Amino acid sequence: MFTKMKQMNENTRPVWIDILRSAAYLHNLFYDGSLQSVFKAREVLMPLAIKHEVAINGISALFQSIEGQLGEDMPVEACQVKGESPSRIFMWAVWFVEEYNGSKMMPECRVIL
């Protein structure tokens, strides 16, 4: 998809693509359908990131992608990804793979429209 969008090629791959790749590996590791579990990766992995001196902008982007995976179904409005960001692309990838197939569990609380 990113090759088609001319965001990468066989010689060039932006760092944010590696961050999204990491988010893909981690996004459902802790998520069990509850609202609290959307934030569990941050809770568990942030101390490791600090210990190993991971760049804050990289780890923040990783957590933002994980926490935005529910898109507009995310009850915490500040975590809903907007615009044409890497996190928005990641949200759509999660939707195509999981939610479209009906395998994505959603939190009990919902956004009030």
Short description:
This protein has 113 residues and is mainly alpha-helical. It has one domain (15-99).
Notes on the protein architecture:
This protein is an all-alpha fold. The protein has one domain (15-99). The protein has 5 helices and no strands. Helix 1 packs parallel to helix 5, helix 3 (40-51) runs antiparallel to helix 4 (56-67) and helix 4 (56-67) packs parallel to helix 5 (86-99). The radius of gyration is 14 Å and the shape is globular.
Question: How do the strands and helices of this protein lay out in sequence?
Answer:
Layout: H1 15-26, H2 35-38, H3 40-51, H4 56-67, H5 86-99
End-to-end Cα distance: 32 Å
Query: How many beta-strand elements?
Result: 0
Largest beta-sheet characterization: none
Rg computed from alpha carbons, rounded to a whole number of angstroms: 14 Å
DSSP helix count?
5
Task: Report the principal-axis shape.
Answer: globular
Q: How many structural domains can be distinguished in the coordinates?
A: 1
Overall pLDDT confidence: 88
Q: What is the multimeric organization of the chains shown?
A: single chain
Measured by DSSP, the beta-strand proportion falls in under 5%
In terms of per-residue confidence, which ranges show pLDDT below 50 for 5 or more consecutive residues? none
Element string (H = helix, E = strand): HHHHH
Helix content: 40-55%
**Content-based structural category:** mainly alpha
